[in-house]
Amino acid sequence: MPILRDNYAWVVHDGRDAVVVDPGQADPILSWLHHHGLHLKAILVTHHHGDHVGGIAGLLAQSPCPVYGPAAEPIPLRTHALADGDRVRLAAPALELAVLAVPGHTLGHLAYFGHGYLFCGDTLFSCGCGRLFEGTAAQMHASLTRLAALPEDTLVCCAHEYTLANIAFAQTVDADNLRLHAWAELARRLRRQQRPTLPTRMAQERATNPFLRCDRPELRVAVSRMAGHEARTPVEVFALLRALKDEFHA
Fold this sequence. Notes:
It is built from nine helices and 15 strands. By secondary structure, the chain is an alpha/beta fold.
């Protein structure tokens, strides 16, 4: 569900009980849960930024429940500290998620994977990735490579509606990518209809997201040309790509 300016909080439910991922704001989530007759049973957090944790206290004031989040970050009111390789198991809704460490955007950033869904916070976006606020280019590239190895039908549940801006940049570095151009047309149509572009599927991200394609020769050539010096390895391509995106204005 959309919250704040361009965030999404994800709700997993069975028609009665619900889990909320990255609640940056309480009131719209509480209203949505009430409207759908759902009982909050747990909160999952990917990282410590305020637009992902700002609603925790408000939710707990109305519906006390466990809060799961990264052990390496200061998550408010966390009850269950998680690290890479842990699993989140819930009885209601029946849910089992693998915990994946994906540092880069923040050093302790986690993702949750299970039942065909990936809740990736600000690590992976459709046609983009998070900024390197705390980690290194090598860390983020490794994290994205790890996520890209998940099954191609995985539904990628990103935490922001950044798709159109990301596509605009992607088209400057991957101009001959027909899959990317097709996605651009569909994404624009969805947003005109005030519909979300998310979730996407991992197969589509592998085909269209330049940050998952740093091993492609054509992307290396394009990025090196735009940056003005040669990138020789996928990590170097990623670092230049991220720097170019940081300065990009559509």
